[in-house]
Design goal:
Shape: elongated
Number of helices: 21
Number of strands: 8
Strand order of the largest sheet: 2-3-1-4
Structural class: alpha+beta
Strand content: 5-15%
Radius of gyration: 31 Å
Helix content: 55-70%
Amino acid sequence: MFNRKWARAVIPSFIVVLWFIGAGFGGPTFGKLEEVSSNDQASFLPAGAESTEAGELQKAFTESTALPAVIVVESETEIPPQELGLYQEIAGELGEVDGLEPAAEGQPALLGPIPSADGLAIQFIASVSDDAELGEVVAELREVLEAQLPDGAEGYVTGPAGFTADLVSAFGGIDGILLAVALAAVFVILLGVYRALILPFLVLFTSVFALATSILLVYAFALWGWIELSGQSQGILSILVIGAATDYALLLVARYREALTEFSSKWDAMRVAYRASVEPIVASGATVILALLCLLFSDLNSNRSLGPIAAIGIVFSLFAALTLLPALLLLFGRSAFWPLRPKAGTHPAGVHGRNVTGLEGLRGIWKRVGRLISRSSRPVWIISLVVLGAGSLGLLQLQASGVPQSSLILAPSNAVDGQDALARHFDAGAGSPVTIIVPEGQQDGVLEVLDRQEGVTEATVVAEQGGDAVVRGGNVLVRATLDYQADSAEAEELVRQLRTDLDTVSPEVLVGGVTAVALDTNVTAQADLAKIIPIVLVVILAVLMLLLRSVLAPLLLIGSVVLSYATALGVSALVFNNVLGFDGADASVPLFGFVFLVALGVDYNIFLMTRVREESLRIGTRPGILRGLGVTGGVITSAGIVLAATFAALGVIPILFLAQIAFIVAFGVLLDTVIVRSLLVPALAYDIGPKIWWPSALARHDVGATPGREAESEQEERKEPAHRA
């Protein structure tokens, strides 16, 4: 007996200490993630993309890996020729900024001043060294401009360097602000759910420790070059771990509190709660992990990397909910629920056998919902389908073919303003030309095509000082300036046309550059959507069939979450276009929204249907559906609100992609929790009855499947005292 008591005291403490050690090593790693993170769009493209191949071959034409910065000065009045000397002095000041380097041998670190044709703007072109701290260099260039410019002039630093610096700055709040907002939202919700002071902290500790330890592994993988870590995947990881770990914790805590009302021993209560919770929690976690790992089939490196990054987070969420949280609950016992400590012997009498409605012992809204479903199941699920179907019509307005780079940053951006100024006074594509790799001897044919192509304002072959074309590896490099902004839909369409036309000159011609990278990214993302969705559905369907020992029920569950996803995306499209005024959606948004919503939406159906199956084995399918819905309603709704709140926290980062994912997932989770899991699924299952478990034995030998069963249940329900309603 002594040894048993000793073990019960030491084992939970040992588990908690192990997690403290893991979090102690992982926590400081948060600040190091920027060292192994990249937000360069080109690095996320597949090796086989045309722009990727062109980019690799282009490196042979210059030893520099510098990032171009376009500096634009816009004046309110026309700049007289005699003032060009002033801008020459400004060029000298700009050229002295540390971190600039010549774009090519023999060239200065900064080109300009270049006046515009209308005389209202001046342009400089600089190259920021790959070894320099980009954000600091761009910030110093902007400071020099602000200090040197005459009255009535505005200066901007834009181009790839300016946009990248502003993008990194926008992601700067991920480690601190995002986590603080998410944790604060979860804490407030947990206080309302539990009405306890200690328990919310235990749940949050579980989530934070899961995140800290997962960060350690993600950092190592990124450092070793196994994954590509970006700001967006870093933000999604934090939110996903906090939300998932809290959801799993809610399920375990609900069963533990329920067991404490039946057992005086906290160990006996945990044993019963753990056995009842482990299967749905593991199944839920496995579903999300497998769905995320399906992103490994993506051709886009950013998508493919997010799969294992997020899966690592879910693994640690699952492990923390099944080890750290039980240990903490055992150490605190009933005190965790203070001031509303559950008392042993207050558990409601069990419901068994035939002639029960499934509503016995239930109270409040979930009893009313159960009564509605038992009396009008078919109208309930039909109306639910109509509502979801109507919302999904918004898909017709979804614009997810990519957005201009200038629309990615939602906060005020000097680079975005500079791009607008550049387009007003210069060729819109200046500073971000299309780069074309041409086999030696074919450059004249390429120039002819470019010369007659509307939208191309200038095309030149990169040449030596003597005028001969530079040849590297049997190729020459042609640069073409477009009349459209490099990140615009018109520029992308022109690149498509150029690729088609230049194939007639030589199929070995490759078109690259900023516009081509954006085009290839969007095309690859759309191809990923068509490829990965069927894979995710098959994987989740297999997990549900194994869990529920049924074929029909999983098919209905999959159908319900797919419809829920379509509705969430349709409503989101209407909001994005007509309320928030977004220019469109990132091409990866539908895929990420699908993976998160389908995987997480199935979570709530797993929590519901595993309890329904458990109750169906005791009291029959139809009463089991009502009872399963009633006893899980509160905890699943709480879990949905928590997850929606954590994903909504992504909206504090002023990046279009994250703001759109935040709305889609938050709205979709609430939709799934309120309509799909609460009304559609239980009403449809109730209408079908025991056949929902086909082809398992439960479909043929239902406990409560007796003639006149439903009629008897309704009569008993009507006889219930009014005060129990």
